[in-house]
Amino acid sequence: MIRAHGLVVRLDGIEALRLGSLDVADGERVGVRGPNGSGKTTLLRVIAGLLKPTEGSVEAPRRTVLVHQQPYFFRGTARENVAYALRLNRHPVREAGEWLSKLGAAAFADRPASTLSEGQRRRVAVARALAAHPEALLLDEPFAGLDAEGHATVASALEAFEGTLLIAAPHLEHVPLHRIVEVRCQAPIH
Fold this sequence. Notes:
By secondary structure, the protein is α/β, with parallel strands linked by helices.
């Protein structure tokens, strides 16, 4: 379960997020929608434990994984990046190819991650996150840069995910969700 109550986040004196409450049940799929600068990314970073709120409290499962809007990759191939998550979570690294295949990324598994297109990077980042077997998966604009086939492949992989899912994006059409939460900060950052 994810619980956030009375959240306020100020960054450099600017209110980046204000949220009364958010309760997400285990296995629930929730969309976080709002315009650019409304606090969607800030909310995900707070839930993931990467950013402390100025006010309020947050509870999230211990195994919570955040896929950033601009995912970070280690040196090495796409396969090595997914294998890292498997190794870290004590799963067989041979599963890396299977996770990449599920995300339609098998064709570029052995290419350096630094040479991948935005859509390819997005697929690998989601494969790596799912390979970590998280209890909660937080995704910041997971469909950005994907063509129709990539969107369908990522959506299918997320639909198969059995944990708690939060997807932040300005548009959430064609995403399998239980509900959508609107997020707005007092002073949007543009």
